[in-house]
Amino acid sequence: MNLDDKALFLDAMEDVQPLKRHTDVHWQPTRNL
Fold first, then answer.
1. Record's superkingdom (predicted)?
2. 32: Cβ–Cβ under 8 A, 6 or more apart, which residues?
């Protein structure tokens, strides 16, 4: 894995993490209903 690939991978992870957290927060109330 070269540095460019690692940088892209980390960028992708940072992009996905907030989305994942947002959907968890978003769906939690509907799941409790």
1. Bacteria
2. none
Give pTM, 2 decimals. 0.34
Distance of CA 9 to the CA centre of its chain: 12
* Enclosing H/E stretch for 15: helix 3-32
How far from the centroid of its chain's Cα atoms is residue 2's Cα? 23
The dihedral sign for the CA sequence 18, 24, 27, 33: negative
The conformational region for residue 2 under phi > 0 = left, psi -120 to 50 = alpha, else beta, is beta
